[in-house]
Specification:
With 314 residues, the protein is α/β, with parallel strands linked by helices. The protein has helices at 47-54, 76-80, 99-109, 114-127, 143-154, 173-188, 200-206, 224-231, 244-251, 276-286, 299-306, and strands at 4-14, 20-31, 36-40, 62-67, 70-71, 83-87, 161-165, 192-197, 209-214, 217-222, 235-240, 256-261, 267-271, 291-295. The protein is globular, with a radius of gyration of 24 Å.
Length: 314
């Protein structure tokens, strides 16, 4: 049995204007032990609703969800012992308390008592590199340090499943990279992670599978490499100092699309057909072009193809 199993999960509610809104529409999803599954989609797509149902903070309208074999509705207390929630931002922490005080408070709220609560808080502070600042108020912490406290809070009960909702939002690149390293450690130790994120690079680096969700429905699901292969997303070749005759020859190769060219010989190509890449590179290098770069397709291209643009649609 999968560590996380979601079957036909639906959640409806009424808006303030009395209109019925479907936040989740018959969602089916699973995650195995030690797997990182990404939930990708725009704001309002249903990612947070799914996260809240799995962590027993919200009831579904219909369908079912199980964590470690336990129903999130009928066996909610047992589910809470096995699942942790990592939020983005300041939610869920008390800024005027120290990191140590926050963890001891939340440990007590989760049923840890006395010496066990204190030792577990200290253990996590050390593991996440926060011992030196453990007795400083959280309101003095950087964004990356706050996120480490969120993770420590979620790990207090050593959960089998972690649900992360935009955990690196607002982090600088160094902090985000460090946080991803922690996720990799947890994955390798057997923790199952559901990662809701807008960061395509993060999802492609961490996730064994991703689910693209919009309007409450999963539109596509699979390993990033399989989604890229199914999309047949183009590779991009950029070249400088390309003679005009060579540019014309490359443009005639089947499977090559010229995305841009300049009189100075700068050329940008999209490559889709099998064999077209090697033929284009041979043609360019044979004419003495050495300023070349090849970019592989990314998960961002899959996202842009499948998820409609609501921000800038005219």
């Amino acid at each position: 049995m999968s560590t996380v199993q979601v079957d036909d999960l639906t959640r409806r509610f009424r808006s303030r204007k009395g209109r019925e809104v479907t936040a989740l529409d018959a969602v089916r999803l699973h995650a195995e032990r030690g797997e990182v599954v990404g939930l990708l989609g725009p704001n309002g797509a249903g990612k947070t609703t799914l996260s809240r149902i799995l962590t027993t903070l919200l009831l579904p309208t219909s369908g079912s969800a199980r964590v470690d074999g336990l129903d999130v509705v009928r066996e909610a207390p047992a589910v809470r012992e096995r699942i942790g929630l990592v939020l983005g931002g300041e939610r869920g922490l008390y800024g005027r308390l120290t990191a140590r005080q926050n963890l001891r408070y939340w440990g007590a709220m989760q049923g840890l008592t006395g010496r066990r609560c204190r030792s577990r808080a200290d253990e996590l502070l050390e593991r996440l590199g926060l011992t030196a600042r453990a007795d400083d108020r959280v309101e003095t912490y950087s964004r990356g340090m706050v996120q480490r406290i969120h993770l420590a809070r979620a790990l207090l009960r050593d959960p089998r499943v972690l649900v992360m909702d935009e955990p690196t939002s607002g982090m600088d690149p160094h902090a985000a990279q460090g946080f991803r390293g922690l996720v990799e450690e947890l994955r390798d130790s057997g923790t199952t992670v559901l990662l809701a994120t807008h960061d395509m690079q993060e999802a492609q680096a961490l996730c064994s599978r991703v689910a693209l969700i919009d309007h409450g429905r999963i539109l596509r699901e699979g390993a990033p490499k399989d989604l890229l292969r199914g999309l047949r997303a183009p590779r991009t070749v950029t070249a400088g100092g390309v003679p005009a005759a060579t540019a014309e020859a490359v443009a005639r190769i089947a499977g090559v699309t010229v995305h841009g060219s300049t009189p100075q010989g700068h050329l940008t190509l999209g490559i889709t057909a099998d064999g077209a890449l090697s033929e284009a590179l041979r043609t360019l290098t044979a004419s003495g072009v050495h300023e070349l770069s090849v970019s592989s397709p990314t998960l961002a291209e899959v996202y842009r193809t499948i998820i409609e643009d609501r921000e800038f649609a005219l």
